[in-house]
Amino acid sequence: MTKTALTGVRVFDGARLTGPATVVLDGPLIGTDAAGAEVVDGAGATLLPGLFDAHVHLLTPGDLRALAGHGVTTALDMACWPRERVDSFRGQVPDIRSAGLPAIGPGGNHAKMPGMPAEAILTAPGQAAEFVARRVAEGSDYVKVVIEGDLLDQATIDAVVAEGKAHGKLTVAHASSVDAYRRAVQAGADVITHVPRDGVLDTETTSRMAEQGQIAVPTLTMMDALTTKLGADGYGFSRDSVTALHAAGVPILAGTDAFSAPMLPVPVVHGVSLHQELALLVAAGLSEVDALRAATDLPARYFGFPDRGAVREGLRADVVLVDGDPTRDITATAKIRGVWAAGVALA
Description:
The protein is of the alpha/beta class and 347 residues long. The protein has helices at 61-69, 83-89, 128-138, 154-166, 178-187, 203-212, 220-226, 235-248, 272-283, 288-294, 297-302; strands at 3-11, 21-26, 29-31, 38-41, 45-49, 51-56, 72-77, 95-98, 142-147, 170-175, 191-193, 215-217, 319-323, 336-341, 344-345.
């Protein structure tokens, strides 16, 4: 069992940086006894918990390598199929969870994706029970419903969310318009991913989200790619919606919607895009500390990972060593000196 002592590091404790300290990676966990450890000099560097990307799409093993190389030690996949592909990504670095196949409506962009199985397409609320039961049987970690316009009626959206919760699963709703957000809020989805490109979220919607304990994963990197980078309007709506969500007290998690299939002229690339996401969150009004928490302890809390998200004795030894002070300059998260997952240094 390997043991590593990271010496002289300043540790992000969820609110600030500590003074220089020694952190011991004792096998897969964070320990305290440095005896016999390999010493890594971290003087002048900052130690962060392993980063989360709370919205990715996994297609190839290369996606995992790209994420890990940029400090992402836990990745939350938001649509991947078939089950065999999802299972092939489990037990590696990053540690992944997946929604498996999402519920979608007929005729929209998602229904037109190559290889989208027919069973993903729902046309009535009565189909929700079987759809969710199949996802649970396949081992999906949470249940996702895609809200595109009125392709799924409210009753069907409500039914998917209710069935997911009945199975004890977290529920996630895709919503990239103001109307879709309102539908997701009404349905009570635990997590709403993306933000609108057609307007800014109103106070009634953001307040209700906060009251209901709902979480947002804005994926500003993807919203940017779909708007300004393609010569379209709308990114300002996305940015200002994040500002509104944050002001309302809605917890915001860092996710990118990274996808390696050639679907966008300017793709959102696994790994590097998370650092872009953090910078965009800061530009939307989050503090640097808020942004760091959006990629560490908050996704750990809301997606149910009590064993990670902080640098603390007894937790999983997922850590990222970076140059600089990301609590003052968020771009420092990309200046990676080393990554350890379950105590193992990644090349």
